[in-house]
User: What shape does this take?
Amino acid sequence: MKTLHTDVAVIGTGTAGMNAYRAAKAQGKRAIVIESGQYGTTCARVGCMPSKLLIAAAEASHAVDEAPRFGVHVEGDKRIDGREVMQRVRSERDRFVGFILDAVGSYPEADKLQGYATFKSDTVLLVDEHTEVHAKAVVIATGSTPAVPGMFKAAGDRLIVNDDVFEWADLPARVAVFGPGVIGLELGQALHRLGVHVRIFGLGGLLGGLNDPAVKANAQQVFQNELYLDTDADVKHIEQVGDEVEIRYVNLDGQETVERFDYLLAATGRRPNVAGLKLENTSLELDDKGVPVFDRYTMQAGKAPIFIAGDVNNTVPLLHEASDEGRIAGQNAANFPNVQPGKRRAPIAVVFCDPQILAVGKPFKELPDGFVTGEVNFDDQGRSRVMLKNRGLLHVYADPRTGEFLGAEMVGPTAEHMAHLLAWSVQQRLTVAQMLDMPFYHPVVEEGLRTALRDAQARLDELQARQHKAVA
Ligand SMILES: Cc1cc2nc3c(=O)[nH]c(=O)nc-3n(C[C@H](O)[C@H](O)[C@H](O)COP(=O)(O)OP(=O)(O)OC[C@H]3O[C@@H](n4cnc5c(N)ncnc54)[C@H](O)[C@@H]3O)c2cc1C
Ligand SMILES: NC(=O)c1ccc[n+]([C@@H]2O[C@H](COP(=O)([O-])OP(=O)(O)OC[C@H]3O[C@@H](n4cnc5c(N)ncnc54)[C@H](O)[C@@H]3O)[C@@H](O)[C@H]2O)c1
Assistant: This one.
């Protein structure tokens, strides 16, 4: 057994881990990264980037389908070459992974340890059975793994998760997607638009991470107009039959139906990678999911010299959060016990389905009593209609006392851009009135946002008028 001494040991070389390592080194400290799997990060290998590549191909296909509505006709049949689609997805994905491999390749060899890390104590790690690492501080950045309900085991080797999709050499004919959350909606719709026969089965009415009932209902309608989506499916039986999976379910018309698919894609959420870490050997307090209780500003777990960043902390499993958290964790681990709060940004989330979904600011469920909602429906929004993208609904929320803009949920056109405008406004703590003072060009989708803000402002004014009347 080798023994290694360092200032900071980072477990996991994903986005959070790489940022933690860089931040620790920038403090002039010794740091190592420990990786049990492949370098390359979840984002680049099986997450953000390959999913967006598949979606880009789906958008190209969809544009051909939509073209006749503009009077543009393509002679002959549209032909999707699944092999070419997947070839581009994989080769571009490999290019992105290559940049990460180059970055990790630039770390000194002595700073990299290959193997699975477990805790022996707060500051001693065992890596496989070959190395004992003694660190002054540890950063846990082990990411997350698809959470696959036990009932799907009946699909045998027809059961897949997102990772498998990006290894396909060709597009399959039929896929049953379980989980219309972020991953299921993005991948399910993309496959549908690429000519794959897709059924999306959900649970409990959840859809795309939306929480505002009106926005969710609008989104459900919009997506159901395009593809088969049951957000609260009644699935009776799942069974592997030869090279297929047979699913018996009650369809949206209430009929019991049996269908066979090439694959059952489980997109039913992710769980933090904490189970194998032997956290019981540490002094850490764990929550009901086994995740160390930590401070989201310092990333420190309790009072221990242990920091936890990225998907593994099970709070906001998004790429930019993993980067920020890794940086804060690495810096604080290097300077332990001088631990300082790091900068956290306004919440922003985008789902790259079409129409896109956004959620920014305070989560809907945490809005204050009596919050004010402003609304715009995109069905008749000028620019959206010009582009034949006139579907969706935006709700903006404001504080009834101060008029401060608190957040928004939306399904609709160009939500990825709108989300930034809105998240920046949340972070600047702008009021609805201040946002309305800003310029709005014509004709743009943001004019729809102005309509929603005006609606919110009218309600705020009405509230204020009522309060004045009550006082008088
Ligand atoms: C399909 C999909 C699409 C996504 N799309 C987006 C998107 O569009 N935008 C967005 O913001 N986010 C997206 N995400 C989320 C984003 O990818 C993650 O939030 C981010 O990659 C998490 O980074 P991380 O560093 O926490 O984890 P990871 O990158 O997973 O890194 C964790 C590393 O730890 C290693 N490890 C685990 N346990 C141990 C151990 N005991 N010892 C040693 N090493 C260990 C793992 O092998 C892994 O390399 C997507 C995710 C998925 C799955
Ligand atoms: N665009 C992005 O930023 C992006 C894209 C993909 C993933 N991500 C990140 O990855 C995380 C995980 O994504 P996800 O889609 O796996 O999780 P999720 O929590 O968004 O969705 C899981 C869905 O599965 C459903 N579900 C659970 N059990 C089920 C069952 N037995 N049958 C049918 N449906 C079931 C849930 O109701 C929910 O709708 C996201 O929270 C997000 O942070 C982000």
Q: What stands out?
A: The chain has twelve helices and 22 strands.
